[in-house]
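Hello,

I think I submitted the flavin-adenine dinucleotide job twice by accident. Can you confirm which output corresponds to this input? Input:
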Amino acid sequence: MSQDGTGGKRPRVVIVGAGFGGLEAAKDLGGKPVDVTVIDRLNYHLFQPLLYQVALAALASTDVAYPIRSILHHHANVEVLLGEVAGIDLGGRRVCLSDGTALSYEYLVVAAGAETSYFGHDDWAAVAPGLKDLDDALEIRRRVLLALEAAEREADPDQRQRLMTFVVVGGGPTGVELAGAIADLSRDILHADFHRVRRQDLKVVLIEAAPRILTAFDPPLSNKARAQLQELGVDVRSGVRVENVDAAGVRVGGQVIPAATVLWSAGVRPNPLAKALGVPLDRSGRVLVDADCSVPGHPEAFVVGDMAALTPEGAKAPLPGISPVAIQEGRATARNILATVHGEPRAPFHYLDKGFMATIGRARAVAQIRKLRLSGLVAWLAWALVHLWYLVGFRNRLVVFLNWIWAYLISNHGARIVIGRRADSAADSVNRGEAVVGGGAGCLLPELGHRDAQDDGVARRVNESGRHVDGRPVEK
Ligand SMILES: Cc1cc2nc3c(=O)[nH]c(=O)nc-3n(C[C@H](O)[C@H](O)[C@H](O)COP(=O)(O)OP(=O)(O)OC[C@H]3O[C@@H](n4cnc5c(N)ncnc54)[C@H](O)[C@@H]3O)c2cc1C
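Support: Only one job matched these inputs. Its output is below.
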């Protein structure tokens, strides 16, 4: 407990994670008779629903992230710490940090979210990145753009097709959004900015193990989403399981789809802190919480958002891992902590279902809002309004809004910048999956030739001896 300046004791609330759930709890405890410590391993709150637009170069990182300190700086009773939580001692009421320090608490809110799950194939992660944070988004952007760059330089038609093939594994909202956005990005830039690769060589494949994509939606809407993806040229394959992912591509149904870029959006698992709590978990590893989001046997500790499994009374399944659930659980938990502080009874959590939405490319979407079913442009407008509303920060809202208007009218992708590595060396590793050796004083690599005037839109590499690098003589 800490002093409140009047001699009274104020309980300390520690909130782990400033994502959707933790941030809402912190905001609602601001200015209240408690002292709050928010701890996150990142210094920013991330708006994950728009992350795929950062990955596909439609938005910049700073458009979807906001410093946690700035969001909470109005509240004198809320402090923000940057740090990684390594463990939680529920019995001792202490949160242990990776730097060896600890924070004690009277109330605890754990809202550390989820991470990408490869269902026991963690070795696929290196080949098929997931999308959970800004680093993932920038890595995906780098891979997609470098694959197109490498295709522009590639002479071998099979290699070129492999570079021009993008496979997205997982037909949930994120997979649908990624596949649609790759189709949009490539369609926009291939004809305008590239000279050798052709739009018709582009192949985007979306793979889903369930019989249909977007299983959380009603079947007719899921069919409409499929049709809209197909209009964008996406090859949607449902009811098939991925058997292997490696540098050559993806194996499904015993056949390999050669692809240089594979993106993984097939599943998430709760943050490892859920297991570390040592309390009962559901089959997917989420903490089985009581009706007020508290941990059974620990009324002072709450788990909210993607880490929690809360099945409302009368429901057959736990609430899904989506932002409205996390936001509402965070707010309800703040109310219940204050009720307990004031000696009042707690209220069970009631979820107000606001529905589901998924966007497909630049101006298409599907939306299921209670009894309302929308698809196409109307659904996209509803999606755009909702996402602007929930995005943190006026500047971010304005920038994203202007970006969307610009993209809609001009069809451009302004954030098409490869960062994080030297593009030339990375392009070669994308190209061949080989380590690039040599360099220094003597360059052992073949020289990239000029474009043949009469070629079929494909660059042929010509070396000094007047032969293509694959050994064929140059036609004069
Ligand atoms: C690409 C993508 C798209 C999505 N699209 C939608 C959508 O369109 N609509 C929708 O409703 N939902 C969407 N979701 C799901 C939604 O973002 C999550 O349900 C929501 O973020 C869960 O909130 P949370 O508070 O549980 O966790 P998060 O928002 O993930 O926050 C967790 C926080 O904990 C921090 N943290 C994690 N581990 C530690 C640690 N050890 N120490 C300190 N801090 C830690 C993280 O840095 C993060 O800030 C999407 C998710 C993704 C990944």
